[in-house]
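Key idea: predict the complex, not the pieces.
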Amino acid sequence: MKKFILIFSTIIIIGLIFGISYYEMQGLNSFPRLNHSNITTNPSTREQPQVAPLHPVNNDSISYSLQNDELNITFNKGQDWVKVPVEKDLLFDGEYRGNKQTLIDDSYILTEDRAAFLYRQGAVVLKNSLDQGKTWKDVIITESFPVLRFRKVDFLNEQFGYVIISGDRTMSQEYSAAFLTHDGGETWEQTADLPTTRLISDGGFVDERTGFLSYGTINPEEPDLYVTQDSGNTWYKAVFHIPEQYDRIFVQTEVPVKEEDHLSVMVNQGPNGDYEGGRVKGKFISKDNGLTWDFSEEVHPNERI
Amino acid sequence: MKEYKNKWIEIGGWILFLFAVGFFCLQMGYFFVHARYQVEYIDNRLFYIINMLCVICLVLAQMLLLRLNKMLKIGIVIVAAVFIIVNGFLLDKNNGQIMNITSISPDFKHVFSVKEDVASGEAVYYRSYYSILARPKEMLPSEIVGEYKVEWLANDIAAFTYQTPDNTIQQFIGTYGDRKNGTSYYYVGAEIHGVWQGENVEVNSNQEGISVTENNNTELFSWENIEQFGTLAVILKNNNGAAWTIALNENFEVHSDASKPTVGNISLYKATMDENQPIILHDKNSR
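Result:
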């Protein structure tokens, strides 16, 4: 015991000595640098509310802030900020229920090579920057579109990207559309019209030709997935072979992903599922590039997919 | 009896040892949160004081828990003394470079903090987090020279009054709350529209600005000379300096319906280096 206390005490003393050296050498006790990112000068007029220092919404090095009713992005954990020239409210325009503290999932891309934000201002616009916010370009996805509900944008590589949007919802019907670009987002073309007006729940492309749209958000009873294998010229309804015991349990498909020589997709239980707590998903695989799907296994929430 | 006493000595020793470990973890945690969240101690002196407390607890714990020979005891005391002297020296040196001005709110929930670079006179207001940590928020508009004082006008409003190199008196208000659920910004001047009365003082807020009548002398402060802090207080300025602060008391209710009577009081606080207390005012029409 004596040894333990003495060793522990020595560690503490050495730790504190290192701590003091670090504190003094790193200048942690020095007067703050007048960095405009975290210090604001005193507002000189009464009209101006005090501006709070910006904090990223998460701990990622590439992140954003919606403070002060504006969108700012950072590529170095909040040390430097770039203001995105877009009205914050436009980013939430349409059917949105939330507190506007974080951007709508999938409605933006924020990576080292691309910052892009999807919104509607009459036309549906993608505000795009390829130089970390130094310059911005507004690309019109479609000239006119009704009030947005679902919105998703993603790029699979530098050139190929897709936008999936829906709107004009009446009860449980709405219009949905997918748009593709093959030139890095300069021009966009709409895919063939989709044969359903159910509410879209998700969608995505796994390569430049193969894409999926999943439908059914309110009380879905079975997977309702549409697939294209020719860059959206035609859409087919995918067929799911669901074992009897999972009938009306696994009902809502997520976005398929490529796995070795086949595709796989997780089918969840929808908003009202209660099978084993409601969070267990069914994994289905397809060996014909998404047309037919066979059950593979149950996936529990704490398992890796 | 002796055994009983020994037991208590041992418990005391372990408690002190745990305190030492706690202080050590606090310091190590501080380095982590500083690197990650750019926060610092609300008062720079805390770093050295916690170091000293840690070592004092550690030495006392060793004395109580261990049977040490005389040489070892002397060695430990010398190491601790050197450590404490070095920390005291660094504390004094740092305090000579950066002056820490801190004040705790009457309800102990907020800490007002300003750090001043003694050499340049520049001062920065810090926003407090978890009582002992803080982040620099904004530069004070003028350098601090000579006297200063901090007065809490409410549990969430601190008025910092100080003198500047050009012999004016300035005020800076730290605000830590809201009177409207924190959901929207509002203008204090507009919210206190009307006539307010207190002991020998009257305040009138109207379209032209805010006028203060003290002992039958009226001074009008136009809206250009009124600066708002947060959503709780305004400063009325004249001749490049502050003249008054008006703050919304905790019982003041902000509501958007102008037809409803105003509820609550406001405080009027004179910008002076003399000892003074805020004057509580009530809405003249509500009585």
